[in-house]
Write a structure and sequence with these properties.
The protein is α+β, with helices and mostly antiparallel strands. It is built from five helices and ten strands, in the order αααββββββββαββα.
Amino acid sequence: MKRLICNSVLFLLVVFLVGCGKTKEARAHFEQAKMLYETKQYAAAKSAIDTIRVLYPREIEVLKESLTLMRLVEKGESERNIAYCDSLAPIRMEEAEKLKADFIFEKDSAYEDIGNYIWKQKTVEKNVERSYIRCGVDEKGEIYLASVYFGARKINHTGLKLSAPDGTYAETVSIPYDGGMNYRFTDLGNTTEVVTYKGENCIEAVNFVYGVADKVRINAEYTGGIKFSLNLSENDKKAIRATYDLAVVLSDLEAMRLEKEKSTKKIMYLDEKLSGNTEQRFK
């Protein structure tokens, strides 16, 4: 009996000592995570906190403090993101304003929520009754190309292929006739067809034009219907390149706006959680 009691006491002592060791280890990891947070090494701090969760799932007190610390880390990240956006946005805005000087802003407030910037020589009014490649970018930075056809017969095209004399080429995504992004009409015996390729549907073609050297001829083939093609002028290429430059800046500004909005909402959520937490705030 005495031996049994001794063995039980010894077992409990071993369990206690092991438990104390685990707690010390968990606490050491926590202190490391706290140091990383205080030195604004947020990604490393989150990784350290995740390690505590995985290795020490029974250390309840340390886990509670780790949860509070994780919220502080995420708040720090969000505050840093906002500061970054606030510092970079004015620079990008200045760049955008300079680039916009070569564009016309068009927006019909009756049915459009987002306006578009059009290269001055590529507005519809300056290109009536002709076939050409139109380009533009909306306020949020989404670029588009449009293959415009004007002629005595229908060609029913759905896509655009751009090619250089060396055989390299790029194509847009095919847009089936839908009366919207691909629409057609006939007036006084002549047919007008306009197929619009937005964002990912045209980016390969845009990048192709951007990468081709000046004075290199680019052929634009209207695909999906009766064969028709034209050559891009130097002004056409200049317009597409300038539109791409503006699109990059506008998309950066939109991304920063969304990031700042998301980070602001996250800080409000985290503050609400932290305000109800009676644990140490580690500030």
